[in-house]
Amino acid sequence: MESEFDTNTPIAKIRLSPEEERGCFLNLRSQLIKLLYMIEAEQKGEGDIGLWFYGFMFDLASANTLCDNKLLKVLIKIHGLYDGDNYKKMTHTQIKRQIMESKGVLDHLIGDRH
After folding, report:
1. Contact (CB, 8 A) for 73 and 102
2. CA dihedral for 98, 84, 37, 63, sign (positive or negative)
């Protein structure tokens, strides 16, 4: 019996153009800074960032795929904060270091586009 799906058909991979990548990197960089401010606010008892952080991780993982894994270092660092709410157990200095190192990676990627 033949399957209605042809498993030999290649799946199209979607990739962003260099200009689209740069726009993506700029957006993610601003979202990283927002993440730091949101974590600081949550630490002061000003809300819960759980849903926003989940959405950011989803976007970051998708962007990494679309940008041919150029964001892997950023994804790993930020996932370390996100996974199991680790950021709630870390010092402000540790959190800021991870976010600023991630920003540095994005700054470098953005600089590569000029």
Report:
1. yes
2. positive
Question: What is 21-45 written as a DSSP string?
Answer: HHHHHHHHHHHHHHHHHHHHHHHTT
The alpha-helical segments, DSSP class H, found in the chain are 18-43, 50-66, 72-82, 92-111
The one-letter amino acid code at 94 reads Q
Q: How many residues would you count in the chain?
A: 114
pLDDT (tens, 9 = 90+) of the chain, 114 residues, equals: 455 555 676 666 788 899 999 999 999 999 999 999 999 999 999 999 999 999 999 999 999 999 999 999 999 999 999 999 999 999 999 999 999 999 999 999 999 544
Whole-prediction pTM: 0.84
Which among 107, 94, 113, 114 has a CA at the least distance from the CA of 29? Answer: 107
Distance (Å, rounded) from C-alpha 88 to C-alpha 82? 9
Which amino acid type is present at position 15? Answer: R
